[in-house]
Fold:
Amino acid sequence: MELSTTKPGAAGIGVIIRDHLGQPLLTASRVLFHCSDAEEAEAAACLDGVRLTERLPDRAIVLESDCASVVSKVRAAGQDRSLIRVCALRLFYF
Structure:
């Protein structure tokens, strides 16, 4: 997942889905026009990536992110009370 911010309240996110050899299978990007912070954008990118995997049935997935706070909130989704709680829960139960 990649994140780019250009102005307050907006962010650009990108996702790359790779196979076990590291070869790209799918890519996607979009603009978040109303984004509170980088953590929210990272969580949205993770959720977009997981949703993209629905196009690749019967494949195990490994979600990677360099945002430690999003990873920890996904792992403890039931206990999280932050603004990204809904995203974390969707990732946890995907």
